Amino acid sequence: MKVFAVQDYIKALKGAGPQITYNIVERARMDPNLDWEDRKKIVDAAYPEPY
Known about the structure:
mainly alpha
């Protein structure tokens, strides 16, 4: 099984629509190789806070 890094998830989020973004975040959530901080980085990239 291929191991994905945080950068791979963030790269996949570029230009993704809402459903693909959701799927990427869910996959990251289930990835046993990521810790809580890594998952937070992915969620922050997927759903940036408006300023």
